[in-house]
UniProtKB/TrEMBL annotation:
Transmembrane segments: 12-39, 45-65
GO biological process: DNA damage response
Keywords: Membrane, Transmembrane, Transmembrane helix
Protein name stated in the entry: YiaAB two helix domain-containing protein
Source organism: Williamsia sterculiae
Domain YiaAB two helix: 15-67
Entry annotated with the keyword Transmembrane helix: yes
GO CC aspect terms: plasma membrane
InterPro entries documented for this protein: YiaA-like (IPR038972), YiaAB (IPR008024)
Length: 97
């Protein structure tokens, strides 16, 4: 009986790099805005948008780091092995009468 491999979703290096770059760009933008711009309404809007971008990038980076850690844990590898074994042993035609 042939064993079927369960497709796994992995975080690509490009997505990880893009997330880290987005976090860095957001952080630098907020710091430059806070340090150099006088506080007028349009500059406050700039700071608000920069902080929003930084926050969303932080959540993305945190998700990427968490997913990478989950992929490397023993628990995940054991669960994948169990699923592979169950799928290899399953015969969909055995219960059909």
């Amino acid at each position: 009986m042939a064993s079927t491999k369960v497709p796994q979703t992995h975080t690509t290096a490009a997505f990880f790099l893009q997330s880290a770059i987005a976090f860095g760009v957001g952080l630098v933008t907020a710091c430059v805005g806070i340090a150099y711009l006088p506080i007028d309404p349009w500059q406050r809007a700039f700071l608000a948008i920069s902080l929003l971008f930084l926050t969303t990038s932080t959540f993305t980076l945190a998700k990427v780091v968490r997913d990478k850690q989950d992929e490397d844990t023993v628990r995940v590898r054991i669960d994948e092995a169990r699923i592979d074994r169950l799928m290899a042993e399953h015969d969909p035609f055995s219960s059909v009468a």
